[in-house]
Hints:
The structure is a single chain. This protein is mostly helical. It is built from eleven helices and no strands. The chain has helices spanning 20-23, 25-50, 58-84, 91-114, 116-121, 123-153, 176-202, 209-234, 255-262, 266-275, 311-320. Helix 3 (58-84) packs across helix 6 (123-153) and helix 6 packs antiparallel against helix 7. The longest helix is centred in the middle third of the chain and has 31 residues, at 123-153. It is globular, with a radius of gyration of 22 Å. Mean pLDDT is 78; it is low at 1-7.
Amino acid sequence: MSIIGSAKCAIVPKDAATDAGVAGAGVLLSFIITAGIALVFSSLIILQSCRRANSESRILRRLLSSLSDQQIITGIGIQAVGLAKFNSMVPYHFFIIWLLSLLSMATHLCTLLALVDDFKRDWVLRWLRQFLMFINMVLSCVFGIYVLIETMRDMHPTLPIACAFQVPAKAAPPNAATSIVGTIAVIAGSVIVLVASLWYLHSQRRKWHVFIQLGGMVLLIALAVGAATRVIMLSQAFGTPNITLRDSAEKDWSFGQLLPMLLLLLPLVSALEIARGEMSFPSSDADDQSPLLSGGDYRSSFQPNPFWGSQSYRLKSRNER
């Protein structure tokens, strides 16, 4: 059923259909493994930076960049699938998608903390990353609002999520207060963290650089662990769902579940190419003054946008050279 169709909210089904494309074992594992590896790599790079280590970790940074790109694209994609099935998807699957979007957000924000100098040096990567982060945050907020309304109205779990604004409100259960407050806090926190991350990406001050990196890393890892734990506990594939499902298809390992796991090998190919010298990756040193491949200019710690970037910044950089 398309997103513009009308949801049937009058009849309450006794059970709900499974959706292995959203909550299948392979889909969930690929999300969690990708996020886990990326967060570990981010932590290693941040700790190495805090210790002022000289190692450039080019392969590690390349792997982290690839895993983060994969995570943010799949995060936006699975949320688009949820919106496409808006009129037929039950709150159980909708909530899992929201948790996966939070996991994706934690991953790419932690990557930003670790690779902030790389994004500052290249305005194309910087603005592309900002655009994808914004899209992911907007979609996550939309999902969070519907999860909040569904919790406040105590909607029957087998009704489509599109019925959240159509069914009459009922008295919320006693334990709903914690869920409501937690959902609001997560939605508000997502917006605040995104704004803070964008400020950090464009900031030229390095005074609180170490404290921002360490504090942000701890906060984002805690968010990722919480979201992943909730997904594992709630999903049919690994835990106990809070809804009666029609079959156990989400536990089956089909080609659609194996494919996301196989895609985890792609970043390793890039890492092997770097190790063999077939690809180049820029140094992590923000003060590196080696010439860029595109012309006679030199790499600086922050590359301004050529369309509306600071002209005085570019003139200053040229005068200093």
